[in-house]
Structure formats: structure tokens, C-alpha cells
Write a structure and sequence with these properties.
The chain has 358 residues and is an alpha/beta fold. It contains 13 helices and eleven strands. Bound molecules: flavin mononucleotide (FMN).
């Protein structure tokens, strides 16, 4: 059954699935695997220094398949020392528990976004996507001039309109169910967050741009539902976390395999920005003071080492166990096989529905 639209045709895709960029969970191996199937892989470039962005995008381009590269739009920050001291002291007990020196202050808060962006324009991958904020009309135009397609993440209709007005080529509609960080930039991404089922048609109604549905999609029925709601393709993250191509630590893997019902929560305790993951000890302890935590990227940089050491020590207590609400439907199989299974399921779901309708 052919499935065609302007988005699919632009890249010569045969399967309307994008493997979500997942910083800290996947590397370029999964991009190669997914892009080989007729679906689209995405390189999570958010933590990569500019020279590595150039190198990894060049390597992927050599394979001749469509793919995307993703950046987090992170501002340069200069937090006051009182805020930082407070946040550092809050983490001291946890750091000592994991055998780390009591205090830690990183020498910078994040990669230089401007330098990453310039490198990505130069690298000119087939597609780019952004989350956490808008990029300027001029930057979008610079990508398009190099032949690169630009997708912006929106968690509500206002954000979708903002991306459309800035000249983006497509909107990634990221619902409340989604695992990992949420891209909200016009609201705080919590109280008013919209679920994928309501978000996709709402964004569809205000723009003619392709809409990519993301959040809680785990199987073919979910993909079919998203397409029926008006999406041109889906972006899936959590579904790929147990593939052999995933680089997550053992305790994270175990937490995904054994997630209880209703396992995930939205939290800003790890990074200062709302993200969805399986609830654990660190999340529970800091929940009451969650609003006091410094905004991204400060808290993210302050907890980075602790999260890594927790994973290495085999403990999930202080590890950010990012996962979406669909985590209980996660399957363990190679990424390329998963894409094929998902697309077979989608077609079966649609045929079954057609039969039921007589
Ligand atoms: C572990 C993890 C890491 C993520 N990292 C990124 C990222 O680097 N950039 C980004 O735009 N989205 C990131 N996301 C969000 C995904 O792009 C996508 O919105 C989400 O996975 C969709 O929901 P699902 O997990 O229910 O499929 C991440 C998601 C997860 C689960």
C-alpha cells in the first residue's frame, strides 16, 4: 500500500516514521539502521561540538539516505552565584552517596549553540529539527538555501504558528505523552501541556505545513491513528530505546523493561526543563522543591556527572530514566526490524478498520 504526501516525496521515504533524536540514548548507528529501511533516522547533535557535527553529518551523507540532525536551542546563560550555590548544595548529599566530591561547578553550562548552528548550516544534512525554542527567520533561510529542510518542535498551537511564521518547512507536534525533554517555549510545558490526540488536529487546522506527530506512539495502531488525525508522519522515541542500537545504561534498560503501570512523570528536577521519565528516588526527593531549581541548562550541567555515575554504578536512583507514557508497550528488537514491524502493523490496523466499516 503506497503512502504518499509532500513530506514523504521530498525525501523519497516509503515509511512515514522518523526515529526521534535522543540525546544520551542513541548515536549515529541507529540513524544508519533506520534510514536504510525507507524511514528517517535523526542524529541527536545537541551535545556535539561543532567539528564533530561536521564529521558525523558528512559520514551520514556518504550513505546516500535521507536523515535529519537535531539541535537543542539553548541560550547562553550567566546565572547569579547565589542561585548556583544553592543548587550545588542541594546536590551535595547525593554526590557523596555516589563517591563524588561534595561540590561541582562545571566550567561551562552548555555547548555554544551559535557555533553548533553555524556548523550544522555548513554540514547541510537533508533535514534538521530543533527543540526548546525558535530559531530566527534568517537562520531558517540559511538552511533552506543549502537545501536543508527545517522542522520545528511545537507543544501547542501558538508555538506551531510561531514556527510557521518564521518560515519552517514542517512542524513536529510533540504531545504531553512524549518521553524525554519537552520543547515548550511559549509556556512552561507543564500545566497547559496538550496530549498528542488533541494537538495534532489542532495544529493541522492552523497550518498547511506537514505535521509530524510525536508522543506516546508505540505501535502500528498508534501510527495509523496519528495519520488519521492529519499527521504526515510520526516521530517515535521511546519505542527505540530497547533496540541493540540504543546506548543507554543497564539500569535504564532494566527500568524500561520492568516499568510499572503509570510509571512516568514530567519533572524538571534533573535539568531545569520539563522532561518525562520513569519516576525514581531522585525525582521523588526533589519534587517538593522542583520550582526552585535553576532553569536549563544550569541544572542539567550540575546533575550531569551524578546521573552518569549513577548509571555506571548500576543504580537507577539518580539516573534520568527518560521514557514516554507508552513505555509499557516497548519492544526489544533491532531498529530496522522494528520499523518494518511497525509499518506492517499500521497497514494491518488500517485494513482491519476498513473491513469493520464494511
Ligand atoms: C531518551 C530521550 C531523549 C530525547 N532527546 C531529544 C533530543 O535530543 N532532541 C529532541 O528534539 N527531542 C528529544 N526527545 C524527544 C523526542 O524527540 C520525541 O518528542 C519523543 O520521544 C516522542 O515521544 P515518545 O518517546 O513517546 O515516542 C527525546 C526523547 C527521549 C525518550
Amino acid at each position: 500500500m503506497p503512502f504518499a504526501n509532500a513530506f514523504m516525496e521530498r525525501f523519497g521515504l516509503s515509511i512515514p516514521i522518523i526515529q526521534a533524536p535522543m540525546l544520551g540514548a542513541v548515536d549515529s548507528r541507529i540513524v544508519t539502521a533506520v534510514s536504510s529501511t525507507g524511514a528517517m533516522g535523526t542524529l541527536a547533535a545537541g551535545a556535539l561540538p561543532p567539528p564533530v557535527i561536521l564529521e558525523e553529518v558528512a559520514d551520514l551523507k556518504k550513505q546516500g539516505k535521507p536523515f535529519g540532525a537535531n539541535l537543542l536551542v539553548v541560550p547562553k546563560v550567566d546565572p547569579d552565584s547565589e542561585t548556583v550555590d544553592h543548587a550545588v548544595h542541594r546536590l551535595a548529599k547525593w554526590r557523596m552517596e555516589f563517591g563524588l566530591p561534595e561540590e561541582f561547578r562545571p566550567n561551562r553550562w552548555s555547548e555554544d549553540f551559535r557555533a553548533q548552528l553555524d556548523a550544522l548550516v555548513e554540514a547541510a544534512p537533508p533535514a534538521v529539527s530543533f527543540t526548546f525554542d525558535l530559531i530566527s527567520r534568517e537562520d531558517i533561510a540559511a538552511f533552506q538555501k543549502r537545501g536543508t529542510y527545517v522542522m520545528g518542535t511545537a507543544t501547542d498551537v501558538r508555538e506551531a504558528r510561531a514556527w510557521a511564521q518564521a518560515g519552517a518547512d514542517a512542524i513536529i507536534a510533540q504531545g504531553y505523552e512524549a518521553g524525554g525533554h519537552h520543547g515548550a517555549f511559549l509556556s512552561d510545558g507543564n500545566d497547559r501541556a496538550v496530549g498528542t490526540f488533541a494537538l495534532v488536529p489542532a495544529i493541522r487546522a492552523v497550518t498547511d505545513l506537514p505535521v509530524i506527530a510525536a508522543g506516546g506512539i508505540m505501535d502500528g495502531a498508534g501510527i495509523a491513528a496519528a495519520l488519521l488525525l492529519g499527521a504526515d508522519a510520526v516521530q517515535m522515541g521511546t519505542a527505540f530505546l530497547l533496540t541493540p542500537e540504543s546506548i543507554i545504561s543497564q539500569p535504564w534498560r532494566k527500568a524500561l523493561e520492568n516499568a510499572p503501570d503509570d510509571a512516568t512523570r514530567l519533572t524538571r528536577v534533573y535539568s531545569g526543563r520539563y522532561a518525562r521519565g520513569i519516576e525514581n528516588k531522585f525525582m521523588r526527593e526533589f519534587r517538593p522543591t522542583e520550582k526552585d531549581i535553576p532553569a536549563y541548562p544550569v541544572q542539567n550541567a550540575l546533575t550531569g556527572e551524578l546521573r552518569r555515575i549513577s548509571g555506571q554504578a548500576g543504580s537507577s536512583d539518580a539516573l534520568s530514566l527518560w521514557a514516554g507514557q507508552g513505555v509499557n508497550a516497548i519492544r526489544e528488537m533491532p531498529a530496522a526490524d522494528l520499523v518494518r514491524v511497525l509499518w506492517d502493523e499500521t497497514r494491518e490496523a488500517l485494513v482491519l478498520m476498513h473491513k469493520r466499516m464494511g
